[in-house]
Amino acid sequence: MKEYLPYGDSPTIRSYTRWEVFEEAAKREGSAKVSGVEESREDLLPPHLWFDNLHNQKVSTFRITDNKVSIEGKDGMSFLHLKGRVEGTLLIEEKGNVSVTGELKGRGTVLHVVEGGPHYSRWNIEGDINIRTLVKGEDIYLRYETRGNIDARGVSLEGRSDINHELHVENGEVFTSHLLIGREGDFLVYRPVAKVYRGGKSHLEALLLKRGGFVVGVPSVEVYTSDVRAASHSVKDLVLSEEQLFYLRSRGFSPEEAERYLMDSLLQFLLGDLKDRVHLSARSISE
Amino acid sequence: MRTVGKVERSLVEEISRKKGEPEWMRQLRLQSLELFEKMRDPVWIKGIDEVDLDKLVLYEDVEVRADKWEELPDEIRRFYEELNLPEMEKKFLAGLSTSFDSEIVYSRAKEMLEERGVIMLPMEEAVRRYPEMVRKYFGRVFPPATHKYAALHYALWSGGVFVYVPKNVKIEFPVEAFFLISSEMFAQFEHSLIVVDEGASIHFIEGCSSPQFRKFSFHDGVVEAYVHKNAHLKFTTVQNWSRDIINFNNKRAIVEENGSVEWVEGAFGSKASFVYPSVTLQKNARARVTNFSISHQGEWKESGSKVFHLGEGSRSTVISKTISTGDGVSVYRGLLRINKGAKHAFSAISCDSLLMDEESKTFTYPHNQIEEETARVSYEATTSFLTEEQMFYMNSRGLDEDAAKAMIALGFLSDVVAELPPEYSAVFRKVLEYDFRGSVG
């Protein structure tokens, strides 16, 4: 019996991720600067996490101790595995050539910034957690696998990135909303899939702001029983509301100011506290 | 000739020889066979590994060709009479072709079609009589290299219809092709090609059926449609295979400037079904795809659509409605691709599923790939459920559980069923009521 792969193996889908770029980077040993963690030990990388020819790759394992974790990879690729609890707000910044796998449990908010590349990041998250993600840069592959009540929002900007999010929900509620801002030469993919079981509720949303480039939104849903509360998903063009724009203009805002104002409020909705930390605004996007 | 198993060169050459095909068609079959041998099995088709080609009847020559129902042998005519086809033809069809296993056995284009220059012939006959015209389109819309089972189809195709509508000819009445699988462990590879020339229009209906078998059969058909400038094609499929058929149908249309195509696809029967009508749209071309399906106990139904926007101002609408009962699984798999340069292209997709039982499932995989910044896209999907309150309300109005379920299913599908021709719509309602009565009782 062959394994059934629901997401397919067509050349289009395979082309989303340039695996050879990661393989090439992984052949060279890199160095990574990590802060906000302790207890480092070296293990072999579990084979299911990486490519066939990298089974012997060493991985450094850390425990998260601070509410701000910073990882910066240089040269070739470094392999890291992180574990931690979320209580309150946890900021994770990943930059450069690095492969991160992580496990998080708890209750609170994770602010996650992934920049640079080639970059491979894969997180298992469990609990009542809000995730706010900003992805920016070339050749980034980011995957979340989550269980529990998850509210995941984020923005993808510039470069080439592929975000996958598998959400398992039973007797709980999940929500995702992700904005893809494509410009000339960009290749941005957002692929969430909600697996909804008894008592679950889900809504997935991909918002597209196209200024060139290639943007792909694949919000998928798998409903396993009729005993779920709701399951819906959508892909929308980001068109700012005419009514809201009119309201703001009637209060003395110029058209540009009104648009910026609405865009800023959308970024606030998607990124929350992360918006100010990364200095992202409607002005910086339009520039 | 009845050929079981082993897809090999000698079988392909024998089919080609038997049909008296020109050399280019023989070469196309052989090249497709080579592709089939080289290509990987698709992993996303649930249950495809159950298809053991070595055990299936790959070709059966039915030595019958008739222009009148009376000329058909009793055992073949009986099948069609049970399906009420002769009556429907009299009432509202302009032309009808019926396929029995591998071959077209009944073909009749009413005089009106002939007078207006419409060609409607069994595919084999069209290859012999109009080789140049057929060659221009055959395998160009849905190429054999698309996937492994498309390649297999091109190596073994047999049956199907060729329709050509000349320039500016508008056919008011629908024409129909009917495909029947009459025996178990059979593989049907019919190929239909519809060409609608500039300014012309036609409504083509494809019906599929089969009796109940103990073992399964395999259907791997291809429909190619070429819609020229300003032309219109409506293609309606009513698939009511018995629940032993694995149905893998490949449909694609190319629509030229200002042309339009409508695919209406209703899938009621079959054990597993994979049908994604696809459309390539050029400048200002329009497409509307309507899908609806019902998955009963133990069935797996995949439907969806693929729309490629190549030209500016192109517009597409996709509506999908699925119902799952028992542990039936409905899958929507869609692709929307808007290429760079398709300025102001517009696409609206809506996808609704209804789950009738706790065990029933629905999966949705929509791919939206946008390269053009001025394009406008909207995709929305919802899942609804049969609730205890709804059932209680219906019961309190005197409807038993089965009647209530049938009524809710009909209500859910009513707007898409309205797109079927009236006769099919009435048949569909009966099938649905029967299905729900049968599935519970």
3D structure, described in words:
The complex is a heterodimer of chains A (287) and B (441). Chain A is of the alpha/beta class. Chain A is built from 6 helices and 12 strands. Chain A has helices at 11-14, 19-27, 242-250, 255-271, 274-277, 282-286, and strands spanning 30-35, 37-44, 58-64, 68-115, 119-147, 150-169, 173-183, 187-196, 201-211, 214-217, 220-223, 230-237. Chain B is α/β, with parallel strands linked by helices and 441 residues long. Chain B has 2 domains: 2-395, no CATH class; 396-441, no CATH class. Helices cover 26% and strands 38% of the residues of chain B. Chain B is built from 11 helices and 23 strands. In chain B, strand 3 and strand 4 form a beta hairpin. At the A-B interface, strand 9, strand 10, strand 11 and strand 12 of A face strand 22 and strand 23 of B.
